[in-house]
Amino acid sequence: MTAVLKLYGCKGCGSAAVEVMLRMAQLPYDYVEAIQWQPEFKRDPALERLNPWGQVPVLVLDDGSVMTESAAILIWIGERIPGMVPVEPNMRGQFLRWMCFVPASLYALFSFR
């Protein structure tokens, strides 16, 4: 039996890119919808046990360990797709720079309730 990852996400949030990468890597996963931005949203106790901030995406790995942060998850998946993540040191440095820049700088432009 193939171990399956579990992705907690929501439409219109950072989990969309994670879903694309999981499919590109052909990694089987179960998806749990965790809508956060609607006023009637009730915190999911299972999600909060995995990530006390209650933020998505959250990826539960096949060994039960938990990954948060879109960039970290995307890098982890990308390393499983040959050629997706550069191995040459200077190119890898630029790749990592941009993977950090987007969430650190651009996400701050959006306001969340």
Give a description of the structure:
This protein is α+β, with helices and mostly antiparallel strands and 113 residues long. The chain contains four helices and four strands; from the N terminus they run βαβαββαα. Strands 2-1-3-4 form a four-stranded mixed beta sheet, covered by helices on one side. α1 links the parallel β1 and β2. The longest helix has 18 residues. The protein is globular, with a radius of gyration of 15 Å. It starts with a strand and ends in a 7-residue tail after the last helix.
Keywords:
4 helices; about 110 residues; four-stranded mixed β-sheet; about 15% strand
Structural class: alpha+beta
Let me know the average pLDDT.
86
C-alpha geometry: globular
Strand count, sense and closure of the main sheet? 4 strands, mixed
Query: Radius of gyration from the CA trace?
Result: 15 Å
- Fraction of residues in β-strands: 5-15%
Count of DSSP-assigned helices: 4
DSSP strand tally: 4
Helical content, roughly? 25-40%
Main sheet: strand order: 2-1-3-4
**Low-confidence segments:** none
> What is the terminal-to-terminal distance?
41 Å
Q: H/E order of the elements?
A: EHEHEEHH
